[in-house]
Amino acid sequence: MRDLLELKVTRLIDAPVDTVWRIATQRMSEWWCPRPWTTEIVELDWRPGGRSAMIMHGPEGEEHPQEGVFLEVVPGVRFVFADAYRAGWVPQTPFMTGIFEFAEEDGKTRYTASARHWTEEARARHEAMGFTDGWSAVAGQLAALAEA
To answer: Which one of 51, 114, 128, 147 is separated from 4 by 20 to 30 angstroms, measured CA to CA?
Structure first.
């Protein structure tokens, strides 16, 4: 059942895990959404229960706020957030849980980003929004920063 609700992209990044992790977590505004969109970091409290809040800005003035909490943060390995809650465990309408994993592979980093959805409809909507192209572009942007 999980696979029916999940979308995933993976990329091998030619940089060590510690480099990719540092860039992924400390320079998120530089890679988080596909260009020409930009990311405004509101707050990233890197601990379970900590707030994860950003605003994605589009080239035509669009704004897409993202508000959630971190469920898990394992430095150098993975971070997981969900939008089913705001900080303080305040419930809100859920869309997805994001899982970002970093694994060593022959001196490089296997980056895997997954979106698990609450419903098949949400998964289909995310896929139709351009999940594969968008999240692949983001992986490429992260790779470009880490490999520089």
So the answer is: 51
